[in-house]
Amino acid sequence: MKERVSGALESYLEQIDELQREFGSVRTSDIADRMGCKRSSVTSALQRLAEKGLINYKAYRPVTLTIEGEKTIRALSRYHRTLADFLTKILAFPEEFAQHEACKLEHSISTSTIERMQAYLDFENNRVCEINSKNEPCQRLSNNSEAFQKFLAEK
């Protein structure tokens, strides 16, 4: 994903992706119906997305994602997964809440923050610890911050 677009435009991209997966082609009216907004608002958003090279758009023709648009969708999906995982696995939020929160946060969080959150998730998933004699899961390290800093330095 080159330069981020606004959260509103990212939402349009996500809707285009979903509709394209469901129906194969996407019309302006489909997007307006799905998002509950006016066709003129959709047209304006589509023009901006086309200018950014994220969609193929011509009036009265189906809308499709460009390769760059597909990359953006993949990045947003990765952001969403990372946020939801972080919220559930690290911060212990319930899954439903984490999914809802991730939907809101994915449009405003920086790439560097997402990368750091994913690095921490990787750190937690890959950490080696001793298994006690009852074969129970290991305990978290008492000094996670220091261990995490060391882990990041090794990456």
Walk me through this protein's architecture:
The chain has 155 residues and is an all-alpha fold. It has two domains: 7-65, Winged helix-like DNA-binding domain superfamily/Winged helix DNA-binding domain (Arc Repressor Mutant, subunit A, Orthogonal Bundle); 74-126 and 143-154, Diphtheria Toxin Repressor, domain 2. The chain has seven helices and two strands, in the order αααββαααα. It has helices at 7-23, 28-35, 39-51, 67-90, 95-105, 111-126, 144-154; strands spanning 55-56, 64-65. The chain has a two-stranded antiparallel ribbon. α1 crosses α2, α4 packs across α5 (95-105) and α4 (67-90) packs across α6 (111-126). The longest helix has 24 residues, at 67-90. The model has no long low-confidence stretch (mean pLDDT 86).
Key traits:
155 residues; Arc Repressor Mutant, subunit A; Diphtheria Toxin Repressor, domain 2; 2 domains; two-stranded antiparallel ribbon; 7 helices
